[in-house]
Amino acid sequence: MHHTENYEPDVSRGHEAGDIRLRPLLLAIVGFFAFTIVSILATVAIFEVMVPGGFASRFQPDVAVRRLPPEPLPRLQSNFTAKKDMADVRRRERQILESYGPSEAAPGKARVPLDVAMETVARQGLPRWDAPASAKEAAR
């Protein structure tokens, strides 16, 4: 609080008046808690309407859990096994990209290593294919 040099405190109350008014502060605190309670109740009401079964469904076993096949359950892959499997897949892909052999995607065709194919295209350029008849007509 800013005071002039001639400030004389009011001692008639027995103490100096505070800077904060208590009534607005108490109203703000009560309003905050009222808003919080109303928000929680509204959230519960919305949850009950939007979620089938509402909060009661939280205490029932999940449908997916209830429909599991009988023992032995499907075994999940461990992290170590997943990393090993991914390494095997990448090794196989690298071997396919870096070797000659028959094409699995197009029977009767052969595959060449990727670096050889890139050098060949860089040296000879891309092959030219005749456009389909419908494309030739569309170009006219």
Looking at this protein, list some descriptive labels.
mainly alpha, two-stranded antiparallel ribbon, 5 helices, 2 strands, 50% helix
Care to describe what's here?
With 140 residues, the protein is mainly α. Among the domains are: 22-66; 88-126, no CATH class. Helix content is 50%, strand content 3%. It contains 5 helices and 2 strands, in the order H-H-H-E-E-H-H. It has helices spanning 22-50, 63-66, 79-97, 114-124, 133-139, and strands spanning 101-102, 110-111. The chain has a two-stranded antiparallel sheet with strand order 1-2. A hairpin with a 7-residue loop joins strand 1 (101-102) and strand 2. The radius of gyration is 39 Å and the shape is elongated. The mean pLDDT is 80.
Order of helix and strand elements from N to C terminus: HHHEEHH
Poorly predicted regions: none
Globular, elongated, flat, extended or rod-shaped: what is the shape?
elongated
Structural class: mainly alpha
**Spatial strand sequence of the major β-sheet:** 1-2
Percent strand equals: under 5%
Which radius of gyration do the C-alpha atoms yield? 39 Å
Tally of DSSP helical segments: 5
- Please count the beta strands (DSSP E, at least 2 residues each): 2
Distance between the termini: 88 Å
**Biggest beta-sheet profile:** 2 strands, antiparallel
Task: Give the overall average pLDDT.
Answer: 80
The amount of helix comes to 40-55%
